[in-house]
Amino acid sequence: MRRVAIVGGGMTPFAEHFDLGIKDLLPQAFRSALRSVDKGMERGDIEAAWFGEVTATDGFPSGILADSCGLLDVPVTRLENACATGNDAIRNASLAVGSGAFDVVLAVGADKVRDGSARQTFWEWMSGNRDMAWDFPLGLVAPANFALHVSRYLYETPATREHMAMIAVKNHRHALPNPKAQLRYEITVEQVLEAPIVVEPFGLLDCTPQSDGAAAVLLAAEEVVDRYTDRPVWVRGVGLGLDRVMHAHKKDMTTFPASVRAAKQAFGMAGLTPADVDVAEVHDCFTGVELIDYEDLGFCERGQAFRLVEAGDTCVGGRLPVNPSGGLKAKGHPPGATGVAQCVELFEQLRGEAANQVDEPRVGLAHNIGGPTAVSAVTILGRERD
Amino acid sequence: MRRVAIVGGGMTPFAEHFDLGIKDLLPQAFRSALRSVDKGMERGDIEAAWFGEVTATDGFPSGILADSCGLLDVPVTRLENACATGNDAIRNASLAVGSGAFDVVLAVGADKVRDGSARQTFWEWMSGNRDMAWDFPLGLVAPANFALHVSRYLYETPATREHMAMIAVKNHRHALPNPKAQLRYEITVEQVLEAPIVVEPFGLLDCTPQSDGAAAVLLAAEEVVDRYTDRPVWVRGVGLGLDRVMHAHKKDMTTFPASVRAAKQAFGMAGLTPADVDVAEVHDCFTGVELIDYEDLGFCERGQAFRLVEAGDTCVGGRLPVNPSGGLKAKGHPPGATGVAQCVELFEQLRGEAANQVDEPRVGLAHNIGGPTAVSAVTILGRERD
Prior knowledge:
Two copies of one chain form a homodimer. Chain A has 13 helices and eleven strands. Chain A is α/β, with parallel strands linked by helices. In chain A, helix 3 crosses helix 13 and helix 6 crosses helix 10. The radius of gyration of chain A is 19 Å and the shape is globular. The relative contact order of chain A is 0.20. At the A-B interface, helix 2, strand 3, helix 3, strand 8 and helix 9 of A face helix 2, strand 3, helix 3, strand 8 and helix 9 of B.
């Protein structure tokens, strides 16, 4: 397959955008991505688009993207893969450029969670991402189903709620310099531990906020990259992994097999290993999930994630900074947008222009684990082409 | 891009499957596609899947496909593009094989419309495919918004409700030998004209039924086609076109610009013209829409579709048989499945093994116009590779 690079990326702030609809957020993210292209890009250069949106809040998603961004002449595919939607949009866009059918394409992610209630409740919003026969009626929406995993993980490993709290503290600190982040204030381990319980073992400050927002990246084939920038960020590997939907079918609650599958595909395509990763944006919808991610992505041995936290390895300044943007936890989490925004962050990190810049990274990894822990997407980006 | 062929295709009957869920329908369509592969195919040969489902009736779509079909080791992308969903799934699957990332992939479409009401009303079901700010609150769900187009079309052209009725009669007759079709009985022009009005100018017999069902095709790269069959059906061209979402923004109600755009892309990729098409499955959600399709797809001049109907050109046995399966009108219309099922029909037609076989077709065209007439997908299949 042809080499593909990101040549532009931008996003709206993640926030409670009560005053903005998807039709407002999409063009903001799109324009922000266009403006980031070093040598400029015309809207007419874009040949196709992929749009990740979990719920069709304001109506027909692909039509609304085309309509609101002035892209009526290009094909737009809307895709949905729970919280892995954004990185899967980038994966499909990359495959399409790789095929040779298109030279320049757009991948966008967006969602409005905060006022979906105009049309549906949060529970209805969640229903498309669960098993409707068993798990959903039993109450296994996001906090509860991730809690089953993390509870078992705490039981099986030396990790504690304090380690989880240290993840929250780290990610809030990381968000401070990020103007796009939703929760830009520091918190302490004590505050996290004393916060009201949402569902054991998650207190309020272990949980991502609900957010509205959009993010966009522009991808180009190697053959035309030079038209747009001398500093492309290459899509080195993409992966998408699935797993059983119902929790009763999951054999080991301390890992997400979907993440392991997605990472294996992406590292295999990239010809890289976890040791090559210099910066990562991983799915920390709940603090304990970030611990499991470290292990599923191969950043440490099984059961040893707590050591990375204790050593400060995953802080900016540490050996492998994770979630320098603030992560879902503090940057926010509009599900369709989250994966794309992770890649916007890595695009900026790998070009040395991030708000919370880590020290000269060469390889970045973006990761989501979504839905009933049944789907994961991993994107590996690099400063070098190969 | 690499050449891609369909090497297998199958589907469930389209019907009121009150006793079956998506988890039942998906494996039925998948097994039916696997069984159709001449030299056999193992589930383990499949490297990736695309799943078109408009509404997540039974829960998390891509996970449920992987889970119910035993495909946990492959990436599954769920996509949605209103009634163009099925052909867009085939388009994305084709691009992915074309890229070289995968040699053998699965494209599936499915939907349950008939008992979505367990969780949501038909109006809620429709809400994701409209403009929520204006058109949906004004009542412009599918019958009403297509009625605006067809009313104007009848005003501007010599076509009449009788011509529309002749489309219904033709497609019901076509469905008679098709064991997968939902409405297998003949009707007369008089019955169509005397049926209760749903919305002017559509009587009950001008409208597609609501259906449940699933369909699947197996796609392979040219390099591996020989492993599976000596009679592949080649994906010659794929196209996806968009248009303004709100009806107030549509300049000419007698055409669907999305269809024109999708057809232009697909014919361009195939290096073919409308005159090369020997058999077509087009979107006849309402009879008058099939008339507009003839013109948008280039089968006749503007305003002249009625002549094809009067001459019987689009009947099986005519110059260009359209909807030999019965079409949406009589075969049924589970939106996510419809486009895939059209390609299953063409796969069988081009191999000479369709239930209602046309005379030795070499090129077939599948077409959808969906949502608020804002998206269209076209797939062109051929017996020859190029």
